[in-house]
Amino acid sequence: MTPDPSLNVLGGALAPCSTDPVTGFFRDGHCNTCAQDQGSHTVCAVMTAEFLAYSKYVGNDLSTPRREFGFAGLKPGDRWCLCAARFMQAADEGCGPQVYLEATHRRALEVVPLEVLQRHAIGHD
User: Fold this and answer.
1) Angle CA 29–31–34, to nearest 5
2) Helix ranges, 58-98 (H)
3) 38-51 residue pLDDT tens
4) Helix (H, G, I), strand (E, B), or coil: what is residue 88?
5) 69: buried, middle or exposed (CB in 10 Å: 19+, 13-18, 0-12)?
6) A Pfam family in this protein (predicted)?
7) Based on the number of CB atoms within 10 Å of its own CB, is 102 exposed (0-12), middle (13-18) or buried (19 or more)?
8) How confident is the model at residue 125 (pLDDT cuts 50, 70, 90)?
9) Could you tell me which of 91, 100, 102 has the C-alpha nearest to residue 121?
10) What's the first-to-final CA gap in the chain, in angstroms?
11) CB 47 within 8 A of CB 121
């Protein structure tokens, strides 16, 4: 698996998303992606209680530890590389989490318009 070029949605170098917990399709702390990443884990998002509850409700429980996969479960405040489609779904439902644009891979733009990401950007009013 060869990662796509590590560029963010703003056209710059892809910043790290999180190493605690370690995130990303490649578990390298970045929202890197490749052709095999069918879920496009490209949106660096900050977890909220509301989003974690929503994600569990729609069938992707990110908060429950899964020790068999070395996954401690996410909590509010954690950063995580979300699937672009799940982020878009949550944004459409009014519970999209905030995102770090510098750490969000440009491939997210295939699913999520830049304007939507910008509305959820950290530091955006």
Assistant:
1) 120
2) 84-92
3) 999 999 999 999 99
4) helix
5) exposed
6) DUF2237
7) middle
8) very low
9) 100
10) 38
11) no
